[in-house]
Amino acid sequence: MRTDYFLGLSEEGFHRIAYTEWGKPNNxxxxxxxxxxxxxxxxxxxxxxxxxxYLGCHLYCxxxxxxxxxxxxxxxxxYTYEQYIADMNALIAHSxxxxxxxxxSSMGGLIGMFLAAMPNSPIRRLVLxxxxxxxxxxxxxxxxxxxxxxxxxNSLKEAIQYxxxxxxxxxxxxxxxxxxxxxxxxxxxRPGTFSSKVDPGVTLAAAKSKIAWQAFLHPIKAMEGTxxxxxxxxxxxxxKCPVLVLHGEQSDILLPxxxxxxxxxxxxxxxxxxxNAGHAPALLDQTHQEMIYxxxxxxx
Length: 300
Known about the structure:
By secondary structure, the protein is an alpha/beta fold. The protein has a single domain, classed as Alpha/Beta hydrolase fold, catalytic domain (Rossmann fold). The protein contains 11 helices and 13 strands.
């Protein structure tokens, strides 16, 4: 395992993207990129990446710009999926790989979908953790209740309690799991005071500032995620590679009817249901990790 960074490029200039690389390049497994959710970071995949690298896999786990140890944008208007896609394309180029596999949780899954749907995509197998081509507005509304907050904590214990509350849908996590995830998600900003390692500008609330401008160009599209569900079905129909969908059985983001339609419109889609989890399963259970690994191996 090693930690490094590469450079992304935006209207503001260059920015650093931190990542952890697990394992080494080999001829048996193509590289795997693991992309985290909206307000999360690369350490969400530490357990999975450690296990996979032990099995011979080579993985890259980046902090999407504005999160973790990556740089922050000066303007929240530059936190866009276009930017995330460009940055992840830079990571693929940085890896030197001609083809890759992709594991994405929530936002990281959407980034993977956009990349996989493009002509000549390097993605050969796609794993989506509790996300699909339709995102219910009600679910987005729930996420927005905590996305955009910038809380401060007086101790690690206080931070753990906060994360247990807002990420309760992660599933059955041990006290050790919560301690690790929290420790990797906060930074000390003053002696004895901690805050989240995420720019408040990356959140859904900031993205809504674009609605006024978008309304001139696409009045219906501009309301997606607020009044209407986000609709990415055309993107989904352009994906040709095999897809494994992980579904938190209590999820309000990936609903059963969405999964049914995904399978009806993409015959290479398989589903793994994760009990006692909502949006999105933490992927810390080694049983689930093994299932993902076997699925990737079967579709090589």
